[in-house]
Amino acid sequence: MKLSITYAELQDYVASHFHKTVNLGYVDGATVSVSIPIKVLGFTKSVSINITVKKIEGTDLFLSHDGKMGIDLLVSPAISYAKKLVPEKAG
Fold first, then answer.
1. Least packed by Cβ within 10 Å: which of 17, 60, 74, 88?
2. Is 34 exposed, middle or buried (0-12, 13-18, 19+ CB in 10 A)?
């Protein structure tokens, strides 16, 4: 089975379902850059993270991320949410 979605389609989906602006960009064949604008003291700052697919084994998808200072504060809620969605894979 082949699954494909454009960055624009995914950005539109996030905007329409979660009312958040997310920017996606190609880094390499396994890595996508994700950035969101955040307002801080009246200024808009873009916070970005790179998400890399490390491997796929059966139905398991192994991801890694890297980002700049403070990115763990943004990623931790997403990881917690994902763990609630599929508790059997939480480890």
1. 88
2. buried
Token digits for 76? 């931790």
Whether 24 and 11 have beta carbons less than 8 Å apart is answered as yes
Pairwise CA distance, residues 71 & 50, whole Å: 10
Do residues 53 and 61 lie in contact, with contact meaning Cβ atoms separated by under 8 Å?
A: yes
* Structure token digits, residue 37: 């604008």
The pLDDT, as a whole number, for residue 90 is 61
Which pLDDT tens digit goes with each residue over 35-67? Answer: 888 887 888 888 888 889 999 888 888 888 886
User: In which element (H, E) is residue 64 found?
Assistant: strand 60-67
Tokens read off for 59: 């139905």
| DSSP-based three-state secondary structure for 87 | helix
